[in-house]
């Protein structure tokens, strides 16, 4: 570091979570199942989300710890099936009460809530009775849910996020259960994507109508794509990868219309995204106020048509860790190993510079204020003999990332907060609680969570502050000066 970057007064320092990954209590107080519950119970060989970090029963303790750390913001999501559990559309007052208490508690501690409406937990009733993401009926159901949230919480919640990582949901539809009931995902995903865009637009407009002073934005999952080399076709490959994993969604959110790139792609591939009269006007009317950015890592792309030997070499990261599997889209791009950055135990690129890159990139393209709503370091972790967790690698990663964020602010980018994933350890999308991200350790393993579920007894779920908690606390309390 050659100098200390400065952060604006009132910068929002906090952390991030999602309902299905942190709350547990999946059948408490009237909550009904979500599609992601089923996914987590069937696809993943770790603990499922029925207990998670048991935040549902530890919310007050968690907020007290956030306050002790010095948080000025907390980004979390509301669970749709906790708020509207059945197809009659009736509001579940017990679900509302849980979030009211959480929001009141945050506000009482001067912690600004940043609330996501949708983070992968569509109620099963929406999927089974309305046809889920394939059906236009879902747009009305989502709008009803969004309006209830704005009416009940909008007096205290001013920052709203509509749909978490729509780009990742479409790119990895099979993984997140979004492709349920679709026969030809290559084509059908654009219809699903269109339904999500209509839901997004309805939520943006309803927020502006119902929440005085309310601001709302999308949450793209940003993984910047570097070209593997200065070979010109590697640059085209990187641009293609960026279009198909991120830019299509960012353009639609920022401009309220589909890009010519996407329309041409549909035409060339004979794809009908299911646009009906009035849809484009609705999309155009929904003006976002900011972009919430999730960014953990970068990817690297090369032209797919390279020779097989070079390809094999690039696809093998190292002998000892075996093979990374890189998606290839024939004729467009192939993702590959980046020899310039290290990798986590979970094969994610450790690349704090990607944060500055993403911020510069989004600012240059869209000129909208931004807040970081996810970033972090997933690792295998254990308590030592004194019951402590020493996570210097996480401190190093967060510090390097915060530095890069500061540089982006110096570059002229408008950024108003940093909320890494996650406050406590919680359930990862595909790796149970074994892949830990928290500043606070949750004292339970996947096996213990499975045993507890089978026995029907909740474990104590003790919270243990990691070294990163103490480091982050100093950083926050000095508004980024002590790091
Ligand atoms: C983000 C998601 O993409 O990445 C989170 O919004 C997720 O839900 C996070 O947990 C980290 O990914 P993973 O797979 O390590 O849990």
From TrEMBL:
GO molecular function: hydrolase activity
Classification via Pfam families: Glyco_hydro_1
Top-level taxonomic group: Bacteria
Active site as annotated: 374 (nucleophile)
Keyword set, alphabetical order: Glycosidase, Hydrolase
PROSITE patterns on file: GLYCOSYL_HYDROL_F1_1
Family designation: Belongs to the glycosyl hydrolase 1 family.
Protein name from the UniProt record: Glycoside hydrolase family 1 protein
